[in-house]
């Protein structure tokens, strides 16, 4: 065992990549995750010993790496995975947060959950089966959630003789399909999770492949987009007013910058009121700065004493979002109880929660072939559909295509607090055919 | 106005990249502020251990220059390390905070809890904790739990809804989408909130080093009278050891986690400084809990079972 000390000598300046995995039950997702954790030396001795002990107790010859990730009693008893789990590992170059999403019957809501915060999604395909319905669903969800990077991992290459032609055909078919959906960047990698080919170590069996291993790609893919290109958005979370002898007049607006860059001296507009002021100071968790950017948590001080409270949005006066009470969006229904036309719900957008009513459900999407079914009347668990929602108060809502943070919302059942649906405002990829151009890519945000 | 350049990291791909510690800090602060904005009566579980110390530090930064708008709650097992209790009280006094203490010893003395034959008190914390939450009507309870600690915790949400019995039901968790945390709950229910969910043990230590946060001395190498039980080096003392057949000896050790003395093991270590501790952890082939927690070894699902009952 080599020491990892030098790897961690100075990690404070490394970046963080959040990624999600998607794959159906037999694609080898657990093996890939196990392999990534194991070969990057992120599985520690006592964890491995625990897995070995349980595997031996069950009479298995080799340690079952899936036990590393299936943590709950019910999961082990039934051999299923419940809901998303988050895993952590690190290399010298980067820290990773992996949203490990189960490929089970509840796939859509689970993958939506995992993909909502992901900078990258790994879609797994069995080389013997190629692109199947489930693969298209995964690609569609990644496109819908606007995950900036998609990796197609063509697994079980060992079972197809490591043949280039098999890989090339699958990669081509997937890339064409996903590009049509608007996925901006696709990287296809031939792997064998079981044998360890091209996961962490380059494969000795596929000389024809000149690209990166999965881990190498994860380590080098850019996580930060040029946020100066996006207009700044600052949802106000909390008003800080110490009212102490030391700070009798301090009044700061605390929040996390959702997108863009804010500078001292910038003219800003507060929505939905439309009042204007100028940024007088930015306090970045205790130190005064003159510039701050997403996703920093900061506190803004404005030149004028205007009425601002939680739920308001501060934006540059040169580029504020429009406000609306009529939200047109794509939603993924995540609850067991259905969502019907006429339902009275709560809508949580950034830091603002408002009453709302579902006016229309114009269509439900079939992910398998991306066909639209008009007027379904209601959406049930795992459905994706278009909705029109009327809110009781105006919202400063961006299109999800422009900002994942200020274009997303939740629909909540006011009776019991259940999260009903994950919403994405504006046009959906499915509502109009689009092709990717360099100009499109600039608008992607996380 | 010197901070601008300090946040731009060489070798990253954009001028506006955040380091992983800055990203984790920013996310945790966002979570603290969400709770302050949405709940009536939040409380921070504060044990004087490193994770709760980091939580308090983040809360202080999140609301500066105003005071932290939360009280603290400590479940005192009665077998806590004196250095840690001392740290706890100094932190409370320094930041002018309000501390509630729920005492396992009082429950035992009143006959409401019975000492276990093995003397391990960690599982006994659940009742005083859940009763304190009910009696004091806390609606949000911050815990320092991290998902990297244990595989049941890997399934935990940042906002984790608990019923009136404080129970965790992994099948009934709300999906957590984007950074939109849903904290709605019925009267009697509450939400457990884990701002350090996405931090690892190493992140916590690196952050402590970066921020210059003071810790109780037992985290650093020192000589201590210890004895071995179930493969753990436990502190000798009146709480219950060594027993017959167990012999104590003086060893150079430190603690990787801080909990009840009956089930928190020390590790052999000469790491006397933050840098030395970070080097040691980075090279360690044992997880934090695997190395030092006897109660997690009781069964394969020990943590899950305790969480279901209301443990944090």
Please give the structural blueprint.
The complex is a heterodimer of chains A (446) and B (312).
Chain A: E1 15-22, H1 29-39, H2 45-57, H3 73-78, E2 85-90, E3 94-100, H4 107-116, E4 120-126, H5 133-144, E5 149-155, H6 164-181, E6 185-190, H7 214-220, E7 234-235, E8 238-240, E9 252-256, E10 261-263, E11 267-271, E12 275-284, E13 287-289, E14 291-293, E15 297-302, E16 313-316, E17 323-333, E18 339-340, E19 344-349, E20 352-366, E21 371-374, E22 378-379, E23 384-396, E24 408-412, E25 419-425, H8 438-442
Parallel strand pairs in A: 1-3, 1-4, 4-5, 5-6
Antiparallel strand pairs in A: 2-3, 7-16, 8-9, 9-15, 10-14, 11-12, 11-16, 12-13, 12-15, 17-23, 17-25, 18-22, 19-20, 19-24, 20-21, 20-23, 24-25
Helix pairs in contact in A: 4-5, 5-6
Chain B: H1 3-6, H2 20-38, E1 42-45, H3 50-63, E2 71-76, H4 82-94, E3 99-103, H5 104-109, H6 126-135, E4 140-142, E5 159-162, E6 190-193, H7 201-211, E7 222-229, E8 232-235, E9 248-255, E10 266-268, H8 274-283, H9 288-292, H10 302-309
Parallel strand pairs in B: 1-2, 1-4, 2-3, 4-6
Antiparallel strand pairs in B: 5-6, 7-8, 7-9, 9-10
The number of helical runs of chain A is: 8
Strand order of the largest sheet of chain B: 3-2-1-4-6-5
Number of strands of chain A: 25
| Number of strand segments of chain B | 10
Find the biggest chain interface: A-B, 96 and 77 residues
Distance between the first and last residues' Cα of chain A: 38 Å
* Derived structural class of chain A: alpha+beta
Q: Round the Cα radius of gyration of chain A to an integer and report it.
A: 24 Å
The fraction of residues assigned to DSSP E strands of chain B is 15-25%
The share of residues in helices of chain B is 25-40%
